[in-house]
Specification:
The chain has 181 residues and is an alpha+beta fold. It folds into two domains: 3-105, NusG, N-terminal domain (Alpha-Beta Plaits, 2-Layer Sandwich); 124-178, SH3 type barrels, CATH 2.30.30. 19% of the residues lie in helices and 33% in strands. The protein is built from four helices and 14 strands. Strand 12 and strand 13 (158-165) form a beta hairpin. The longest helix has 10 residues, at 96-105. The model is unreliable at 1-6 (pLDDT under 50).
Length: 181
């Protein structure tokens, strides 16, 4: 390696692109490399029931802290890794403050909780289960006593209002870095 290039590189956090659906494998194989730390934030949609498996907060990406002079080849060729993000052939470091803030927002289980925004009339929602699954609509009325919501959606070419369990809806999310704690 060119010594002048190596002087610019330093032990830092870098963004790693995983191969499709291989984020977990990439995180595990990078974690096995001596001198490399991995941060792979995940999230679970908050629901009262119907728990879903944790999903990558940044699908296809994870973070690794390493010295590129010593570990770039090992990280790049680790199982599940597509490449390390670069700029002008040099690995592009991630601001440590970003990693610090993400880690503060992460639970002990490695999850970042992203709460739904307060449910409001006029919110755009996606139906996540049932006959109208993957349909998009707009909240027209909240029925808090029964945990139900009236949603206006287009059905058979005309607007139709349906009443649905709020757990069957995906409401807009609050950005995890703006959650007051």
């Amino acid at each position: 390696m060119n010594p002048s290039v190596a002087e610019d590189w330093e032990h830092n956090w870098y963004c790693v692109r995983a191969k499709p659906r291989a984020e977990n494998a990439a995180a595990q194989s990078i974690k096995a490399i001596r001198g490399v730390d991995v941060f792979f934030p995940k999230t679970i949609p908050q629901r009262k029931k119907n728990s879903t498996p944790a999903q990558a907060l940044f699908p296809g990406y994870l973070f690794a802290c390493f010295d590129p002079v010593l570990n770039m080849r090992a990280v790049h060729f680790a199982h599940g890794v597509a490449y390390v993000l670069r700029r002008n052939l040099k690995p592009d470091p991630v601001d440590p403050e970003i990693i610090k803030d993400l880690r503060i927002a992460t639970t002990e289980e490695g999850l970042i909780e992203i709460p739904d925004r307060a449910h409001q009339v006029g919110s755009k929602v996606t139906i996540t289960e049932g006959l109208f699954k993957d349909g998009n609509g707009m909240v027209t009325r909240l029925i808090p006593a029964r945990d139900r919501v009236k949603v206006l959606l287009e059905f058979l070419g005309r607007p139709t209002e349906i009443e649905i369990d709020e757990n069957s809806l995906d409401f807009p999310k609050v950005h995890p870095m703006r959650v007051s704690g």
